[in-house]
Amino acid sequence: MPPKRPPPQRTFLTNAQKLELKAFWSEHPDLQLLAVVDWVRERFGVSVGRATLYRIYHAPADAFAGNAQQKKGRRVKFPELERDILAFCEESRRANESSGAALSDDALLRAAAELRARHGISETELKLSNGWLHRFKERHALRVTPQAAAGEEVESAQTSTDNGDATQAASDAMDSGKPKRKPRATQRKVDAGVVMADAVDAVETNDVSDGSETGDDDEEDEDSVVEASVAIQEALEANSDISATTLEASVISEPASVPAVIRPLTYLSAVSVDPATAVGFVRWKLNSGMAHAEYFSVDDDGVAVLTNAMVQLNVELQHSALPSDSSPIIFKVWAGVELLGQCESSIRWADDQALSVLQLGCTLPAQTVIRVEYHGAGVVHSGSRLVLRLLNE
After folding, report:
1. Quick check: 40 and 21 in contact, CB under 8 A?
2. Composition bias, kind Acidic residues: at what positions (predicted)?
3. Reported pTM
Protein backbone atom coordinates (compact mmCIF):
# COMPACT_ATOMS: atom_id res chain seq x y z
CA MET A 1 0.00 0.00 0.00
CA PRO A 2 1.60 3.32 -1.03
CA PRO A 3 2.18 5.91 1.70
CA LYS A 4 -0.68 8.35 2.10
CA ARG A 5 -0.21 11.91 0.98
CA PRO A 6 -0.48 14.54 3.69
CA PRO A 7 -3.54 16.77 3.42
CA PRO A 8 -3.03 20.06 1.58
CA GLN A 9 -1.99 22.97 3.78
CA ARG A 10 -4.09 26.14 3.69
CA THR A 11 -1.94 29.17 3.03
CA PHE A 12 -2.80 32.85 3.13
CA LEU A 13 -1.15 36.19 2.49
CA THR A 14 -1.37 39.00 5.02
CA ASN A 15 -2.60 42.43 4.00
CA ALA A 16 0.98 43.71 4.08
CA GLN A 17 2.10 40.89 1.78
CA LYS A 18 -0.79 41.56 -0.61
CA LEU A 19 0.21 45.22 -0.84
CA GLU A 20 3.82 44.21 -1.52
CA LEU A 21 2.61 41.82 -4.22
CA LYS A 22 0.53 44.55 -5.90
CA ALA A 23 3.56 46.88 -5.85
CA PHE A 24 5.74 44.18 -7.41
CA TRP A 25 3.12 43.47 -10.06
CA SER A 26 2.83 47.14 -10.98
CA GLU A 27 6.62 47.27 -11.46
CA HIS A 28 6.63 44.10 -13.59
CA PRO A 29 3.35 44.13 -15.57
CA ASP A 30 4.71 41.83 -18.27
CA LEU A 31 5.06 38.81 -16.00
CA GLN A 32 2.95 35.77 -16.70
CA LEU A 33 0.75 34.54 -13.85
CA LEU A 34 2.83 31.40 -13.28
CA ALA A 35 5.93 33.54 -12.84
CA VAL A 36 4.13 35.59 -10.19
CA VAL A 37 3.15 32.36 -8.41
CA ASP A 38 6.84 31.43 -8.27
CA TRP A 39 7.78 34.89 -6.99
CA VAL A 40 5.22 34.65 -4.17
CA ARG A 41 6.56 31.20 -3.21
CA GLU A 42 10.13 32.52 -3.23
CA ARG A 43 9.33 35.78 -1.41
CA PHE A 44 6.83 34.66 1.23
CA GLY A 45 7.43 30.92 1.42
CA VAL A 46 3.81 30.05 0.61
CA SER A 47 1.99 28.76 -2.45
CA VAL A 48 -1.28 30.41 -3.46
CA GLY A 49 -3.69 29.63 -6.28
CA ARG A 50 -3.93 31.59 -9.49
CA ALA A 51 -7.55 32.53 -8.73
CA THR A 52 -6.42 34.15 -5.47
CA LEU A 53 -3.69 36.09 -7.29
CA TYR A 54 -6.22 37.24 -9.88
CA ARG A 55 -8.49 38.63 -7.13
CA ILE A 56 -5.57 40.40 -5.43
CA TYR A 57 -4.47 41.92 -8.76
CA HIS A 58 -7.90 43.41 -9.49
CA ALA A 59 -8.68 44.52 -5.91
CA PRO A 60 -7.97 48.18 -5.01
CA ALA A 61 -5.03 48.78 -2.67
CA ASP A 62 -7.26 50.28 0.03
CA ALA A 63 -9.01 46.92 0.33
CA PHE A 64 -5.91 45.70 2.18
CA ALA A 65 -5.56 48.72 4.48
CA GLY A 66 -6.00 48.37 8.24
CA ASN A 67 -4.56 45.43 10.11
CA ALA A 68 -1.35 44.60 8.22
CA GLN A 69 -1.17 41.08 9.70
CA GLN A 70 -4.77 40.15 8.87
CA LYS A 71 -4.97 37.36 6.30
CA LYS A 72 -8.60 36.67 5.46
CA GLY A 73 -10.80 39.52 4.31
CA ARG A 74 -14.38 39.45 5.60
CA ARG A 75 -17.53 41.39 4.87
CA VAL A 76 -19.50 41.93 8.06
CA LYS A 77 -23.19 41.09 8.00
CA PHE A 78 -24.28 44.16 9.97
CA PRO A 79 -21.96 47.01 8.93
CA GLU A 80 -23.94 49.76 10.74
CA LEU A 81 -23.76 47.85 14.01
CA GLU A 82 -20.05 47.24 13.40
CA ARG A 83 -19.48 50.98 12.97
CA ASP A 84 -21.37 51.81 16.17
CA ILE A 85 -19.40 49.26 18.20
CA LEU A 86 -16.15 50.59 16.77
CA ALA A 87 -17.24 54.15 17.64
CA PHE A 88 -17.91 53.02 21.23
CA CYS A 89 -14.39 51.57 21.40
CA GLU A 90 -12.91 54.83 20.12
CA GLU A 91 -14.90 56.88 22.64
CA SER A 92 -13.75 54.61 25.46
CA ARG A 93 -10.14 54.94 24.33
CA ARG A 94 -10.32 58.74 24.32
CA ALA A 95 -12.10 58.84 27.69
CA ASN A 96 -9.50 56.58 29.30
CA GLU A 97 -6.40 58.24 27.82
CA SER A 98 -5.74 60.26 30.98
CA SER A 99 -6.27 57.39 33.42
CA GLY A 100 -4.55 54.77 31.29
CA ALA A 101 -7.37 52.28 31.86
CA ALA A 102 -8.13 49.90 29.01
CA LEU A 103 -11.49 48.70 27.73
CA SER A 104 -12.22 45.19 29.00
CA ASP A 105 -13.71 42.32 27.03
CA ASP A 106 -16.74 42.29 29.36
CA ALA A 107 -17.42 45.97 28.81
CA LEU A 108 -17.11 45.61 25.05
CA LEU A 109 -19.48 42.64 24.97
CA ARG A 110 -22.05 44.43 27.14
CA ALA A 111 -21.93 47.49 24.90
CA ALA A 112 -22.20 45.30 21.79
CA ALA A 113 -25.27 43.53 23.23
CA GLU A 114 -26.93 46.87 23.98
CA LEU A 115 -26.19 48.22 20.51
CA ARG A 116 -27.40 44.97 18.95
CA ALA A 117 -30.77 45.45 20.67
CA ARG A 118 -30.96 49.08 19.49
CA HIS A 119 -30.48 47.92 15.92
CA GLY A 120 -33.26 45.35 16.29
CA ILE A 121 -30.95 42.40 15.68
CA SER A 122 -31.87 39.19 17.48
CA GLU A 123 -29.42 36.95 19.34
CA THR A 124 -30.00 34.17 16.81
CA GLU A 125 -28.96 36.50 13.96
CA LEU A 126 -25.78 37.62 15.72
CA LYS A 127 -24.28 35.67 18.62
CA LEU A 128 -21.80 37.75 20.59
CA SER A 129 -19.52 34.85 21.36
CA ASN A 130 -15.83 34.67 22.18
CA GLY A 131 -15.22 33.92 18.50
CA TRP A 132 -17.06 37.08 17.43
CA LEU A 133 -15.08 39.11 19.97
CA HIS A 134 -11.76 37.73 18.70
CA ARG A 135 -12.57 38.42 15.05
CA PHE A 136 -13.91 41.90 15.80
CA LYS A 137 -10.65 42.85 17.53
CA GLU A 138 -8.62 41.26 14.73
CA ARG A 139 -10.54 43.12 12.01
CA HIS A 140 -9.85 46.48 13.63
CA ALA A 141 -6.46 45.72 15.24
CA LEU A 142 -7.85 46.41 18.71
CA ARG A 143 -6.23 45.56 22.00
CA VAL A 144 -8.75 44.89 24.74
CA THR A 145 -7.98 43.79 28.30
CA PRO A 146 -8.25 39.95 28.25
CA GLN A 147 -10.70 39.50 31.10
CA ALA A 148 -13.32 36.78 31.36
CA ALA A 149 -15.22 37.62 28.20
CA ALA A 150 -18.86 36.49 28.13
CA GLY A 151 -18.82 35.85 31.86
CA GLU A 152 -22.24 34.29 31.80
CA GLU A 153 -20.99 31.57 29.47
CA VAL A 154 -17.93 30.97 31.63
CA GLU A 155 -20.06 30.76 34.77
CA SER A 156 -22.45 28.39 33.04
CA ALA A 157 -19.60 26.17 31.90
CA GLN A 158 -18.16 26.13 35.43
CA THR A 159 -21.55 25.22 36.89
CA SER A 160 -21.90 22.43 34.36
CA THR A 161 -18.46 21.14 35.28
CA ASP A 162 -19.26 21.22 39.00
CA ASN A 163 -22.55 19.40 38.41
CA GLY A 164 -20.74 16.82 36.32
CA ASP A 165 -18.20 16.25 39.08
CA ALA A 166 -20.95 15.85 41.65
CA THR A 167 -22.82 13.37 39.47
CA GLN A 168 -19.64 11.38 38.90
CA ALA A 169 -18.95 11.31 42.67
CA ALA A 170 -22.46 10.05 43.40
CA SER A 171 -22.13 7.38 40.73
CA ASP A 172 -18.81 6.24 42.21
CA ALA A 173 -20.38 6.01 45.65
CA MET A 174 -23.26 3.84 44.36
CA ASP A 175 -20.84 1.55 42.55
CA SER A 176 -18.44 1.21 45.48
CA GLY A 177 -20.18 -1.95 46.76
CA LYS A 178 -20.07 -3.67 43.37
CA PRO A 179 -17.14 -5.81 42.23
CA LYS A 180 -15.09 -3.92 39.68
CA ARG A 181 -14.62 -5.43 36.24
CA LYS A 182 -11.21 -6.08 34.79
CA PRO A 183 -10.34 -3.13 32.57
CA ARG A 184 -10.51 -3.79 28.86
CA ALA A 185 -7.39 -3.87 26.71
CA THR A 186 -6.63 -0.78 24.71
CA GLN A 187 -8.70 -0.71 21.56
CA ARG A 188 -6.44 -1.09 18.53
CA LYS A 189 -9.02 -0.58 15.81
CA VAL A 190 -9.19 2.91 14.37
CA ASP A 191 -12.59 4.52 14.78
CA ALA A 192 -13.45 6.07 11.44
CA GLY A 193 -16.27 8.07 12.96
CA VAL A 194 -13.92 9.81 15.33
CA VAL A 195 -11.48 10.65 12.54
CA MET A 196 -14.29 11.96 10.37
CA ALA A 197 -15.55 14.06 13.25
CA ASP A 198 -12.06 15.43 13.71
CA ALA A 199 -11.93 16.28 10.01
CA VAL A 200 -15.22 18.18 10.20
CA ASP A 201 -14.05 19.92 13.37
CA ALA A 202 -10.88 20.95 11.55
CA VAL A 203 -12.93 22.71 8.88
CA GLU A 204 -15.12 24.43 11.45
CA THR A 205 -12.09 25.47 13.50
CA ASN A 206 -10.44 27.04 10.48
CA ASP A 207 -13.43 29.28 9.81
CA VAL A 208 -15.92 29.48 12.67
CA SER A 209 -19.01 31.46 11.70
CA ASP A 210 -21.32 33.19 14.17
CA GLY A 211 -23.49 34.91 11.59
CA SER A 212 -21.64 38.22 11.84
CA GLU A 213 -19.51 37.76 8.73
CA THR A 214 -19.80 36.55 5.17
CA GLY A 215 -16.69 35.16 3.48
CA ASP A 216 -15.20 36.10 0.15
CA ASP A 217 -12.22 33.70 0.23
CA ASP A 218 -13.83 30.95 -1.84
CA GLU A 219 -10.57 29.29 -2.76
CA GLU A 220 -9.47 28.98 0.88
CA ASP A 221 -12.84 27.48 1.82
CA GLU A 222 -12.44 24.94 -0.98
CA ASP A 223 -9.07 24.03 0.49
CA SER A 224 -10.81 23.24 3.78
CA VAL A 225 -13.24 20.93 2.03
CA VAL A 226 -10.37 19.17 0.25
CA GLU A 227 -8.52 18.75 3.53
CA ALA A 228 -11.60 17.29 5.21
CA SER A 229 -12.22 14.96 2.26
CA VAL A 230 -8.67 13.63 2.48
CA ALA A 231 -9.05 12.98 6.20
CA ILE A 232 -12.40 11.25 5.72
CA GLN A 233 -11.03 9.08 2.91
CA GLU A 234 -8.10 8.06 5.08
CA ALA A 235 -10.48 7.19 7.90
CA LEU A 236 -12.59 4.97 5.66
CA GLU A 237 -9.51 3.19 4.33
CA ALA A 238 -8.14 2.69 7.82
CA ASN A 239 -11.46 1.32 9.10
CA SER A 240 -11.89 -1.10 6.21
CA ASP A 241 -8.45 -2.68 6.38
CA ILE A 242 -6.81 -1.80 9.68
CA SER A 243 -4.82 -5.01 10.00
CA ALA A 244 -3.12 -4.54 6.62
CA THR A 245 -2.42 -0.90 7.41
CA THR A 246 -0.87 -1.80 10.77
CA LEU A 247 1.32 -4.49 9.19
CA GLU A 248 2.53 -2.26 6.41
CA ALA A 249 3.13 0.65 8.77
CA SER A 250 5.63 -1.52 10.63
CA VAL A 251 7.78 -2.09 7.57
CA ILE A 252 7.20 1.02 5.43
CA SER A 253 8.50 4.40 6.46
CA GLU A 254 7.33 7.45 4.55
CA PRO A 255 10.16 9.31 2.84
CA ALA A 256 10.89 12.68 4.36
CA SER A 257 9.54 15.49 2.22
CA VAL A 258 12.33 17.40 0.52
CA PRO A 259 11.52 21.07 -0.07
CA ALA A 260 11.69 22.08 -3.72
CA VAL A 261 14.55 24.35 -4.72
CA ILE A 262 13.10 27.71 -5.62
CA ARG A 263 15.05 29.64 -8.23
CA PRO A 264 15.06 33.44 -8.00
CA LEU A 265 12.88 34.98 -10.68
CA THR A 266 14.92 35.88 -13.77
CA TYR A 267 13.24 37.22 -16.90
CA LEU A 268 13.47 39.70 -19.75
CA SER A 269 10.59 41.50 -21.43
CA ALA A 270 10.93 43.14 -24.84
CA VAL A 271 8.44 45.10 -26.97
CA SER A 272 8.34 45.58 -30.72
CA VAL A 273 9.53 48.99 -31.94
CA ASP A 274 8.57 49.24 -35.62
CA PRO A 275 5.76 47.75 -37.68
CA ALA A 276 6.85 44.52 -39.36
CA THR A 277 5.41 43.12 -42.56
CA ALA A 278 5.45 39.65 -44.09
CA VAL A 279 7.80 38.02 -44.53
CA GLY A 280 10.11 39.72 -42.05
CA PHE A 281 11.58 39.64 -38.57
CA VAL A 282 10.11 41.68 -35.72
CA ARG A 283 12.51 44.21 -34.15
CA TRP A 284 12.63 44.48 -30.36
CA LYS A 285 13.77 46.78 -27.57
CA LEU A 286 14.16 46.10 -23.85
CA ASN A 287 11.06 46.91 -21.82
CA SER A 288 11.67 45.47 -18.33
CA GLY A 289 13.24 42.54 -16.55
CA MET A 290 14.79 41.16 -13.40
CA ALA A 291 18.33 39.82 -12.86
CA HIS A 292 18.60 39.07 -16.59
CA ALA A 293 21.85 40.80 -17.57
CA GLU A 294 23.96 37.64 -17.26
CA TYR A 295 21.50 35.48 -19.21
CA PHE A 296 19.65 37.50 -21.89
CA SER A 297 20.20 40.52 -24.11
CA VAL A 298 18.19 42.29 -26.81
CA ASP A 299 19.86 42.53 -30.22
CA ASP A 300 17.74 44.52 -32.68
CA ASP A 301 15.68 41.82 -34.42
CA GLY A 302 16.41 39.10 -31.84
CA VAL A 303 16.87 38.23 -28.19
CA ALA A 304 20.09 36.39 -27.32
CA VAL A 305 20.43 33.65 -24.71
CA LEU A 306 23.95 34.15 -23.31
CA THR A 307 24.41 30.85 -21.41
CA ASN A 308 23.23 27.27 -21.71
CA ALA A 309 19.76 27.47 -20.23
CA MET A 310 16.28 26.01 -19.98
CA VAL A 311 13.84 28.82 -20.75
CA GLN A 312 10.17 29.62 -21.10
CA LEU A 313 9.31 31.79 -24.10
CA ASN A 314 6.06 33.75 -24.55
CA VAL A 315 5.38 35.70 -27.75
CA GLU A 316 2.30 37.93 -28.03
CA LEU A 317 1.90 39.58 -31.44
CA GLN A 318 -0.67 42.29 -32.07
CA HIS A 319 -1.22 42.45 -35.80
CA SER A 320 -3.71 43.26 -38.53
CA ALA A 321 -6.79 41.09 -38.69
CA LEU A 322 -6.22 38.32 -41.18
CA PRO A 323 -8.51 37.67 -44.15
CA SER A 324 -9.94 34.19 -44.52
CA ASP A 325 -7.70 33.39 -47.50
CA SER A 326 -4.44 34.42 -45.77
CA SER A 327 -1.51 32.15 -45.02
CA PRO A 328 -2.26 29.48 -42.38
CA ILE A 329 0.96 30.47 -40.58
CA ILE A 330 0.88 33.77 -38.65
CA PHE A 331 4.44 33.77 -37.32
CA LYS A 332 7.39 31.47 -36.68
CA VAL A 333 9.91 31.46 -33.83
CA TRP A 334 13.53 30.63 -34.70
CA ALA A 335 16.51 29.73 -32.50
CA GLY A 336 19.37 30.43 -34.86
CA VAL A 337 18.50 28.29 -37.89
CA GLU A 338 16.31 25.88 -35.91
CA LEU A 339 12.53 26.29 -35.95
CA LEU A 340 11.22 26.25 -32.36
CA GLY A 341 7.53 26.58 -33.20
CA GLN A 342 4.90 28.44 -35.17
CA CYS A 343 1.52 30.05 -34.48
CA GLU A 344 -1.38 29.28 -36.81
CA SER A 345 -4.39 30.89 -35.12
CA SER A 346 -5.31 34.05 -33.23
CA ILE A 347 -6.93 34.07 -29.81
CA ARG A 348 -8.67 37.46 -29.99
CA TRP A 349 -10.02 39.88 -32.58
CA ALA A 350 -11.16 43.47 -32.13
CA ASP A 351 -12.10 45.68 -35.08
CA ASP A 352 -9.18 45.39 -37.51
CA GLN A 353 -6.65 43.99 -35.02
CA ALA A 354 -5.91 40.49 -33.78
CA LEU A 355 -3.78 38.96 -31.03
CA SER A 356 -1.79 35.77 -31.58
CA VAL A 357 0.11 34.02 -28.79
CA LEU A 358 2.71 31.24 -28.70
CA GLN A 359 4.22 29.72 -25.53
CA LEU A 360 7.23 27.42 -25.65
CA GLY A 361 9.57 25.69 -23.24
CA CYS A 362 13.00 24.66 -24.50
CA THR A 363 16.67 24.13 -23.64
CA LEU A 364 19.04 26.32 -25.65
CA PRO A 365 22.84 26.48 -25.99
CA ALA A 366 24.78 29.62 -25.19
CA GLN A 367 24.72 32.52 -27.69
CA THR A 368 21.47 31.37 -29.30
CA VAL A 369 19.52 34.24 -30.88
CA ILE A 370 15.72 33.96 -30.85
CA ARG A 371 13.87 35.70 -33.69
CA VAL A 372 10.19 36.06 -34.54
CA GLU A 373 9.33 35.94 -38.25
CA TYR A 374 5.93 37.36 -39.30
CA HIS A 375 4.03 35.61 -42.12
CA GLY A 376 0.52 37.07 -41.86
CA ALA A 377 -1.19 39.78 -43.86
CA GLY A 378 -0.95 43.43 -42.85
CA VAL A 379 1.56 44.47 -40.19
CA VAL A 380 2.72 43.67 -36.68
CA HIS A 381 1.82 46.61 -34.43
CA SER A 382 4.18 48.27 -31.99
CA GLY A 383 3.65 47.07 -28.44
CA SER A 384 3.80 43.36 -29.24
CA ARG A 385 5.70 41.49 -26.52
CA LEU A 386 8.35 38.81 -26.12
CA VAL A 387 9.02 37.52 -22.60
CA LEU A 388 11.92 35.16 -21.92
CA ARG A 389 12.15 33.56 -18.49
CA LEU A 390 15.03 31.50 -17.11
CA LEU A 391 13.90 28.16 -15.66
CA ASN A 392 17.25 26.48 -15.07
CA GLU A 393 20.89 26.70 -16.14
Report:
1. yes
2. 213-225
3. 0.41
